[in-house]
Protein: DNA polymerase IV
Organism: Nostoc sphaeroides CCNUC1
Amino acid sequence: MDAFYASVEQRDNPSYRGKPLVVGGSPNQRGVVAAASYEARKFGIHSAMPSVTAIAKCPGLIFVRPRFDVYREISTSIHAIFKRYSDLVEGVALDEAYLDVTDNKQNIPYASTIARYIKTAIFQETQLTATAGVSINKFLAKMASGQNKPNGLTVILPEDAIAFVEQLPIEKFHGIGEVTAAKMHSLGIHSGGDLKEQTLSELTHHFGKAGHYYYRIARAEDDRPVEANRVRKSIGAETSFAQDLSNVGQMLQELEQIAQIVEQRLEQHETRGRTLTLKVKFSNYHQITRSKTMLALIIELSTIFEIAKALFESIDLENRSIRLLGISLSNLDNAKQTQVIQLPLFQNAGIIF
């Protein structure tokens, strides 16, 4: 979906239309942006940005509190549209899903045709726009979905897959964040073509287990199946810092903002957890985790931050700087979770919305 939360708010309140708007915390608090309208994005505002930073970029920015009950209801309606064509639907978030339409219910021969039908139905039934990427696997469909937003449709044919990946800037790759992209740049890797020139041993040497993933996607390979009814085992958020943090106060401020994002995601998925895990990666790439399990469900932001802060303060930080912080909740309590159904995906026709 295109700027989903923000687009819903603009749809439901005509006075918001055409104006820079974010869904998220108040600028008077230590809030974070959950979603930004396309008008706000022109100012460089994006999700997970601190609210104070967003208001500094755009003083006239409109802040709206999230209405996750409304977003969930719309998401359910959109998934019902997906199910008219395939039962192989893997929800990634309220606003995103993978569809395997190889054997679709309406026996339509082209995935791109199905994508057009779905886009039309979504707009007719919700007055919201969606962007689709169509290709032969998850990675390529995901990359295609980011090419022509908003309200776009991009198809990557099998014969075009390798050429598409080779010309793609490395920072555009799904699964490669800002910090990893910077490291790749330092190694002379600026595009998919550059990445493809690296051997598997070189990539695993520099990036550990993730090197296997990078090696395969550089060759347009991705055999992950579309998992219908996928069970979510944990919910979390993490931030990699462009510059390593050495100030404890700044670390705690970042940790609080990450806790707010985790709280938002718990709300989105209507779940809570009992085990909180803190992830810390130091400047030398050494990584540690600390966990605590509670008898009661962890629900409120104050509790998430309090536990994460206590775990953080138990770590020896003397003369050490940090490049990444993360918080996740597991041992989830979610009555809606169902059994994972794994299905094969071999050169299938895939769509991501």
Q: What stands out?
A: The longest strand covers residues 234-245. The domain at 4-64 is CATH 3.40.1170.60 (MutS, DNA mismatch repair protein, domain I). The radius of gyration is 21 Å.
